[in-house]
Write a structure and sequence with these properties.
Elements (H helix, E strand, L loop, with lengths): L6 H14 L14 E2 L12 H10 L17 H14 L3 E5 L2 H12 L5 E5 L4 H10 L2 E5 L4 H11 L6 E6 L11 H10 L3 E5 L13 H4 L8 E5 L9 E5 L1 H10 L1 H4 L6 H11 L4 H18 L7 E7 L1 H13 L2 E2 L2 E2 L9 E6 L10 H7 L8
Parallel strand pairs: 1-10, 3-4, 3-5, 5-6, 6-7
Antiparallel strand pairs: 2-8, 7-8, 9-12, 11-12
Helix pairs in contact: 3-11, 4-5, 4-9
Length: 373
């Protein structure tokens, strides 16, 4: 008979293993007097106190929601935001969720069944993977942004399943690279697939806030688009937008929507407020800053998410600690968030920054061998 181990001892042993390979996570505040390089506040709206005060001056609605939306907790501000999203994205329907994680888990787990398949970029967010797993659908990952690999897998497997979804992000949050939406659209049409995209890190930045698909003129070809308000919008919540059949199905079957207390009305109202702002000047400043920093670090690409890949967990931790001592907060990103031996610092820029604030950061990072992805 095996000796019964205490459950807490088993869990503690697993935590100790994380500590031995520098993978242990802790909740930490941004140190005082450090420039935060980990925030997703890409346009600097969350820190714009003047803009927030302007919004609050005219807002006199509720600050919280007491129940799920289907249990009598609907609000005019939710409908207003959804109608605005439908218009900006040229979609039949939009539906609010509490977060991007809720939206992705709810969408994939509701819309797919065991006889369906998802062709998913291998670097798609954990919320997408979790949603697919909950659905019971077959997941067939393809090499990151490798359209030939995707084509080969579509040719080999598509006909074996009923519904098929191609899943990608527009901007990948750890590699900082963009998907070629046009190639995904071509493949989805050729192989009779639905195309689901995650705009968590681009919605709000491009096309005066409407996002990357609109910026590329391809919104009409996207079957389901997910975007968040907790990043570039400086707000809270998320949404899915698409065909009315898809959205009505989510209203009935997406468990995170059905069974969660809905997001605060004040958040939806602030998101509507931001959506009406002209953010193009903020975005242009962000793009210029990103280009300058990448050039100085000799890193390819163009996004405002700059991966500084160092390789070993221990090195990433050590460099992060060095940056903190010099006034920069960039926590290490390690496995399983990224692949083994690709530990990195994720430098996330925003429109409130000036290059002068980052010159010493660039000098410090030049002391290390940064790997290109």
């Amino acid at each position: 008979m095996p000796v019964a181990l205490n459950a807490l001892d088993i869990l503690e042993d697993e935590l100790e293993k994380l500590k031995t390979n520098s993978s242990y996570r802790e909740i930490k505040n941004v140190p005082e007097k450090c420039l935060n390089l980990s925030s997703n506040d890409y346009l600097g709206i969350a820190k714009d106190t003047a803009l927030v005060k302007t919004f609050l001056k005219d807002y006199n609605g509720a600050l919280s929601s007491p129940s799920a939306r289907l249990l009598g907790c609907d609000s005019a501000v939710f409908a207003t935001l959804e109608r605005s999203l439908e218009k900006r994205l040229n979609k039949e329907r939009a539906l609010l969720f509490n977060s991007g994680y809720h939206a992705n888990v709810g969408t994939y787990s509701a819309l797919l069944k065991s006889d369906d398949v998802v062709f998913c970029d291998r670097l798609c967010h954990a919320s997408i993977i979790d949603g697919i797993k909950l659905s019971g659908a077959k997941v067939i990952p393809f090499k990151h942004l490798n359209y030939e690999d995707l084509r080969e897998k579509l040719q080999k497997y598509r006909r074996k399943y009923k519904k098929a979804v191609i899943s990608t992000e527009t901007l990948f949050s750890m590699d900082g690279d963009f998907a070629s939406l046009g190639q995904f659209v071509e493949l989805k049409k050729e192989f009779d697939c639905l195309l689901f995209i995650d705009e968590a890190h681009t919605f709000g930045v491009y096309a005066k806030g409407a996002g990357y698909a609109v910026h590329k003129g391809l919104s009409d070809d996207i079957d389901l688009l997910m975007g968040t308000f907790g990043k570039a919008f400086g707000s809270y919540g998320a949404f899915c937008a698409g065909n009315s059949v898809l959205i009505n199905y989510l209203i009935n079957f997406a468990r995170p929507f059905v069974f969660s207390t809905t997001l605060p009305p004040v958040s939806a109202a602030f998101s509507s407020f931001v959506l009406e702002q002209d953010t193009s000047e903020r975005a242009q400043k962000l793009f210029s800053l990103s280009k300058k920093v990448r050039q100085e670090l000799d890193l390819p690409g163009e996004s405002y998410i700059i991966p500084v890949v160092l390789g070993e967990n221990e090195l990433a931790v050590r460099v992060s600690e060095t940056l903190v001592k010099n006034g920069y907060y960039a926590p290490p990103v390690r496995y399983p968030t990224v692949s083994k031996n690709t530990a990195r610092l994720r430098i996330s820029l925003n429109a409130n920054m000036e290059y002068e604030m980052l010159k010493n950061l660039v000098s410090l990072l030049k002391n290390y061998k940064i790997r290109a992805l």
